[in-house]
Amino acid sequence: MDEKSLKQKLLNGKKTERVIFAVTPEMKEALAAVAKDRCMSVSGLLTALAVEEINQSKDVVSAALIDVEVK
Length: 71
Known about the structure:
mainly alpha, 70% helix, elongated
């Protein structure tokens, strides 16, 4: 799966799942500062970072996405 197709697969469609994790106040503040500098929300920043990381692991992710489609 090429980068564009993978990104479309990950970002298009109804968002029904949530990922929740704990961070320190310092990390929250740092993320907010980076997001503000890039004129985006913290959620958008985290999504962009996740997509970038997933794109670097295409072989693992592609197999997982194919498995999800089959189920």
